[in-house]
Amino acid sequence: MADQTNPVGVRHVRVPDDRDGQRLDNFLLGQLKGAPRGLVYKLVRSGQVRVNGKRAKAESRLSAGDDVRLPPVKPDEPGQAAVPPRALLERMQASIVFEDRALLAISKPSGVASHGGSGISFGVIELLRALRPGEPLELVHRLDRDTSGLMVIAKKRSALLQLQALLREEGGIGKRYLALLTGRLPDGTLTVDAPLHVGLRQGGERHVRVDPTGKPSRSHFTVLERRGGQSYCEVRIETGRTHQIRAHAAHLGHAVAGDDKYGDPEVNRRLRDKAGLRRLFLHAASLEFALDDGRSPYVLNAPLAPDLAEALDRLG
């Protein structure tokens, strides 16, 4: 029912018990169906969204029973989400590799962002919500836009909270990636234990570097085989920092092939000409974890993306 002291269309929603602790922005994305992330942040910044009558920040955590004021969102409001292209929806549907009552897993295509914003209309979560209207889907974690592979989306609030707790716990989720590193990495397993600091370049672009003031970060690189003078590796990470594998690989002097941020442009050009590699050769291959206090184990896999497999074959 509209609030008599506010414009017609304003709604007040009580936060249900199963949303206790959820971030305000994620709660709003579930309530304002179809509204892009950028519009949601704009509504919060302008004070049109109120929690218990007060302004709140997008990252604020809600409590069960909180009263959230939702402003009207007009269908023709600037920035309102359009309907995702059918081809993109079909691509996302085809990417699902696992599903049960608690979660679903996709093999994210390279070039698709985890979520919309900053000029991106549709990310993984917007596309899945368009495919599954009314389902309470939530991103558990993110992958870089250029990285392909396994992503997990929670279908139940209880699963989301358990997975978020495991992500905060070192080693709580086993993460395995496949990557092509430039040059010849030594045989065996090479561990990089180097803190990473996230900085911003001009224009707001994130750039990560090894820095003593950064957050502890640990990656393990194991050469699986040599291809065309490059090193095809399995990478296991104990922490999940922004650009961790890419920054650690560059720190070793063996950047991930096709990395236009941390790699060597000349090496990338040669790999593009020789192997047809036109993007970052980094693929999230598997995740291993257990829910319900260990009673529900999961081992999820996403096969190497076809374009990366083809590039590997061309290297001989």
Automatic annotation (TrEMBL):
Residues annotated as domain RNA-binding S4: 22-84
Ranges where the record places region Disordered: 54-82
InterPro entries in the record: PsdUridine_synth_cat_dom_sf, PsdUridine_synth_RluA-like_CS, PsdUridine_synth_RluC/D, PsdUridine_synth_RsuA/RluA, RluA_PseudoU_synthase, S4_RNA-bd, S4_RNA-bd_sf
Major enzyme class: isomerase
Keywords associated with the record: Isomerase, RNA-binding, rRNA processing
Reaction equations catalysed: uridine(955/2504/2580) in 23S rRNA = pseudouridine(955/2504/2580) in 23S rRNA; a uridine in RNA = a pseudouridine in RNA
Pfam families in UniProt: PseudoU_synth_2, S4
Keyword Zinc in record: no
Domain of life per record: Bacteria
EC number: 5.4.99.-
Bias type Basic and acidic residues, positions: 56-77
Entry annotated with the keyword Nucleotide-binding: no
Family per similarity comment: Belongs to the pseudouridine synthase RluA family.
Function of the molecule: Responsible for synthesis of pseudouridine from uracil at positions 955, 2504 and 2580 in 23S ribosomal RNA.
Descriptive protein name: Pseudouridine synthase
